Amino acid sequence: ASVDAPCLGVLAAELSLLCCHNDLSITQQASLGLHHLLCIAKHQNGDTEKNKSTKYEKHGNYCLLSPSSDTEFLPKFLQRDRTKIAQNVGKTLTPSLLTDFTWSLLMTLSSPNYVTAFKASTILKLTLEYYAHKVTMVSKIVDAIYKKLRENSSHVMRHAMLRVITLLTRTSPKKVIFQLMDYPVPADNTLILMWHAAGSESSVAPHVLKTILLILKGKPGKMDDSLLERRRFSLDTTNMMPVAASQALCTLLPVCSYKKAVAQFFPQLLMALMVQLFYISDLRQMAEDMPFYAQDALRVLLNCSGLQQVDIALKKKNCWNEFSEELLKHHGIYLIAKTLSDYNFPQFPETLHYLYKLSVEGPRRSEESVITVIFLTELLNNFFKDPFPEEFLVLFRNWVNDSNPTVSKLSLQKIANMAPVINEIENVCSLLICILDAFHSKDKTVIIRALFTLRKLLGKLDKVTYSSLCTRIASSYCPLMDHSNEGIRSTAIRHFGELLRDMNQYTWMLSDVVLGGLVPLILFLEDTEKSVVKACKHTLAICASELNWSTSYLLKDEYYNFELVVLNLCNNLLVSHENYITDLISDTLGFLRSSRIYLRKASIILIGYLAKLGGHLLLRDEIEVMLEAIDRVVRDEDPMIRELAEITHNIFKEIDHRLTSSNVKQTFRRLFHFIYVKKLKPLYYYNWPNNLASSPVKMKETKDYK
């Protein structure tokens, strides 16, 4: 009683077997020994401290326990009564000792003596029937059974071992299932037998499926050979447990005892298997022999859930082959959702609820997000009319700026399709603002999709709401006019013009924004991409019309000359928006540092004309900053830019010289500029056409100058 006895579990197993011996004298001695063993175990549990009636006779360094008053431990009750033995041992031994007891009996199942092996199997099964929850090292036991059955598939105690698996699954389903999924795929016949044993009882079916769903959250990868020799019980990026779990579902889902659990977890199983389809499709690009159990399991799920017609229809649509093509995987998901909807699958309410739950839970793997968006969108399309209920619209608003570009584009695509009913959406302003936020995406394709989505919505938006947001929308286009991607540049510039045309009754609201975007509109007339040049001409023509500038005729291809356009615009600015000239110069200075040669050329020319017009408005500090910027360009590697920069530099020098004259002269000059406005004449003759004198443009310019 005063020392730990670590071998009590093993000894209890030996004595239990001897309690069932054919020799009565051995049985009596064994039952007496087991009686004392259980008393020791009970004392070690601390029960005797509560029971002060137990007495001990001390003999040196040890003591003898007096006979217990508990009739359950009496030797006569332990003789050849396997049920009593199992119940008392299971109740009394601590978890670690009971595990030793279980392990010892398990090893005895391989005894060459069939009688002994049978007795061991009976006691083992009876013990686990009531006390399996106390057994630790479940994974080790499962692994031992697998190895024994694999070595000898016709083992005489095979059914007993499989029953052990069943009993352990009752109380430790996660440990058993994780261990069963930790073997190489595809599973051999021994493993399939053990799967059947683990899934044989309906009471544990929900727990088994929950554990499998947990495993299916993992992303399968290429397994190293070293992993075959060691145990692992956690999901990681290199494991093949999800593949094994998919194969296990092919075995477990058709089992009758699982019918109720399958119905309960249908949405979770459906989504998890589609995610695995994605993963396995990627792996099959590298290893064509990779088993496609996720597809098989998904088809089994459909058939077990009363959706046989859906499975047949998907096969006719060649759906399953689409997952083997990288570009068609998304369409495969769409086909599954569409076909389920077409057949009005009865699991729609719980599937929709689960998808909504997935959508609001937070960060997930990118593949899961994409599948969720595709599936949810298609279900909503088939069961709801646009616009969707607000609780779902919130999801799409959030997805617009998702970190996954594919999710963003799918959301924008669906929102664009709502254009005909845009005015029926309650929080339409917040929806439009979310789309404007997508303009800041790092992914170019998202920005393009956001631009076209916004344009489609604005085409149907009522003017009252439109006018309340037009300034903010127009301002959001301006940064994109200088985007590195020519497609985004041209689209933003063109849509900026379309907005001005839409809001022609609100020109007074947009005047500041138009002038704020004027510099890129002018400079990108020199873009090397024709689509950008056409967009600039298109939008500048609209600006000229709305702001009463006589510029549009200069933008025609047959008469177009960049410097003439700049000259004409600057002359108009001098008359109508003189106070903005300083700001326009500041905006243009930023383009002098551009890596694109055409932008540096164009900005040098524009700055020169703006300075010539508004030099009287500039302060000395401003001129010094501008001269410093021009000085850097004078040393440009391009000779044409150096030549143009010299002319612009001289213009600023002239302005600076005028500022050194007396205050009286400066005041007089400023007053003169306000009273008498003189239009500019060409300064650079950059790409000047030879036939300009006979053109309608020149004739009109000559008339204007007169």
Automatic annotation (TrEMBL):
<protein>
    <submittedName>
        <fullName>MROH9 protein</fullName>
    </submittedName>
</protein>
<feature type="domain" description="Maestro-like HEAT-repeats">
    <location>
        <begin position="2"/>
        <end position="209"/>
    </location>
</feature>
<dbReference type="InterPro" id="IPR016024">
    <property type="entry name" value="ARM-type_fold"/>
</dbReference>
<feature type="domain" description="Maestro/Maestro-like HEAT-repeats">
    <location>
        <begin position="397"/>
        <end position="647"/>
    </location>
</feature>
<dbReference type="InterPro" id="IPR048465">
    <property type="entry name" value="Maestro-like_HEAT"/>
</dbReference>
<dbReference type="InterPro" id="IPR011989">
    <property type="entry name" value="ARM-like"/>
</dbReference>
<dbReference type="InterPro" id="IPR055406">
    <property type="entry name" value="HEAT_Maestro"/>
</dbReference>
<dbReference type="Pfam" id="PF21047">
    <property type="entry name" value="HEAT_Maestro"/>
</dbReference>
<dbReference type="GO" id="GO:0005737">
    <property type="term" value="C:cytoplasm"/>
</dbReference>
<keyword id="KW-0677">Repeat</keyword>
<dbReference type="Pfam" id="PF23227">
    <property type="entry name" value="HEAT_MROH2B_C"/>
</dbReference>
<dbReference type="InterPro" id="IPR045206">
    <property type="entry name" value="Maestro_heat-like_prot"/>
</dbReference>
